[in-house]
Amino acid sequence: MKKSVLRKLIILLSAPVIGLVLLILVHLLPTGKMFEHVYWSLDTIVPEFEDETVVNGYRATLTGNFTDCIMLLHAIYDHPDHSVVEQSLMMYRPEFLDDPSYPDGWQPGNSLVDYVANNNINREVSYGRYWHGYLIFLKPLLLFTSFGSLRLFFSAFQLILLCLIIIELTSKGMKREAWAFLISVPFMFFFSTFASLSLSVCFYLVIFSLFVMIKFWDKLEEKKLFFEMFLIFGILTSYFDFLTYPLVSLGYPLVFYAYRKISRAPSGEKNNFLFFSILLNSAAWFIGYGYMWMSKWLIGGLLGYKGLIGNAFTTVNTRLQSAESLNRVSGFFRVIGLNLKPYLNWGFFIYIGIICLAVLAGIILDRKNGIGLKMVSSNIKNAWILLFIALYPFVWFAALENHSEQHWIYTCRIFAITVFALSTFAVSITENRTK
What pTM did the predictor assign? Predict the structure, then answer.
């Protein structure tokens, strides 16, 4: 018990320190080559100011140009008045100001062009409420190549990572679960993530968390380290992500965790502890996520950087409010409608139709192999927990109505959890565990 508590404390206390040290180290890198490579990327970046979608007319296929420009600015910005510690905590960037309708300076595209092309630094803004952990990878990469070349690399790299999970699952005898995972991936708009720095972060986190769970399952189970793992997943999400669709880094490993526990239970035997462990692991992720986020503000406040804590709490309060001009109930249904909107088109209708036909064919084949209603009803005693996880996106949307309403074009990707949970549910109830 003492060792378990000590492990958790070590993780919580060391995470902010490690995170800050890594940011300080990459801020010591020279920005000259990064600056040059971003300059030569403007031909790629600028045309997307007006239309940042991969598929015209489908807003959820966005490249994230708005946020990517912020990330690139943070990667190349260097000012002699700021120490590396101050820059790592406060995250200053130059801001273009030529439009009175944007008094807070939310014009990252124009700001990037103005800074790179003209080297103007007549105004600064701070974006310190996030960790910006992506910089520990983005800065070194920009030393070697341009943003356009990085997109080409990401398109190949992400495909390889996707195949890695499929290979790991099939090598462990979980071929059907590999299909369940694969079915859900398009709902994260995987085909457009290669083009976005900001919207690919959570995809990488999903791949990492699943790989750890699949590869090291036996060790994690033997040493009872699942709470610590989900704690770390939450910490990493808070460190790297911009509050895009972070819930997937909880939902995907949680679905896999539930599936493994279900598949290892004897047929017909109910696992009474499973529901509690799902809640416990979920709590671990949220503790890690919230703690890591708040630690950034506290470190900044303790070191005397003013405004960071106040700005962060104001933003969090805003994001927790209901949808604009609506009460919580009406706002919830509006948010659900907006986030379902990207999937209400013939592209997804055809895809879902093909999946349904494949599932129907699988059911017919399973019946021939001796899997009938009796086995399904026996398996469902534990598999129902996957239906509970499938509801997680709805809980998230209810809690963060304001954020989910304003940014539905990418928060919609959280519904991939629901699809993964439902497809895994179908796998779980039709598995023959008597063999």
Answer: 0.93
